[in-house]
């Protein structure tokens, strides 16, 4: 049997195409995917590549993370070699990466716990942070390595307390969507980010969650008996008590 070159290429690509939460996780019976706007933060999260099935969640030191027992999948994104990219940091990393690749540089800004507004434009234009002030120290550089140095600065001075304050409460939990965050600021606080949402004919929703943890680790898609979580069903996962509507927040559109 002969095959055309195009057919062979399509066959090969079907095995080499990146896996993501849409392709990896089957929609529960009786539910359907909630549509997302192309180019949105939600669409970006759904397209993030996942590491191969069975990959363990590792800390920045390369050790198996204590949260690995809850791993449904591991996002194929660097964690760095410092204990920086923890829970809120992972959420800010995902948001920052999305805006960077959208070239929406003016929107890349996160507040420190002190209240200082750390915006990427200042950093990329050569300013550096010192005692809640900017000082011009370097040349303009909008490259990705500079962006990552900016994100590491954010990780060092921001956290769940500051992120919770700058996110907007979701007043109607029925409007839950990918990109929303369950968060409680504190020392320690914690947060989860919603990666995908499905709904049934009664408008009941289930959703996929991702997190980082302490010490800094891979961003993992979670599971507790199932990878699909609900707000009306208690989960005994660590910090599962936060998966409630009163902890639900959202980035500005």
Give the fraction of residues assigned to helices: 25-40%
Q: What structural class do you assign from the helix and strand content? A: alpha+beta
The number of distinct structural domains comes to 1
Radius of gyration from the CA trace? Answer: 19 Å
Gap between N and C termini, in Å? 52 Å
The string of secondary-structure elements, in order, is HHEHEHEEHEEHHEEEEEE
Overall mean pLDDT: 93
Assess the beta-strand content as a share of residues.
15-25%
- Please give the count of helices: 7
Tell me the overall shape. Answer: globular
Poorly predicted ranges? 1-16
Largest sheet geometry: 8 strands, antiparallel
Count of beta strands: 12
Give an account of the 3D structure.
This protein has one domain. The longest helix has 15 residues. Helix 4 runs antiparallel to helix 6. It has 253 residues and is an alpha+beta fold. The termini are far apart. It is 25% helix and 20% strand. Strands 1, 2, 7, 8, 9, 10, 11 and 12 form an 8-stranded antiparallel beta sheet that branches.
Layout of secondary structure:
Layout: H1 5-16, H2 21-24, E1 31-33, H3 41-47, E2 71-74, H4 87-101, E3 109-111, E4 117-119, H5 120-124, E5 127-130, E6 133-136, H6 144-157, H7 160-166, E7 168-169, E8 181-184, E9 190-200, E10 205-211, E11 220-222, E12 248-250
Antiparallel strand pairs: 1-9, 2-11, 3-4, 5-6, 7-12, 8-9, 8-12, 9-10, 10-11
Helix pairs in contact: 4-6
In short:
The protein contains 7 helices and 12 strands. It is α+β, with helices and mostly antiparallel strands and 253 residues long.
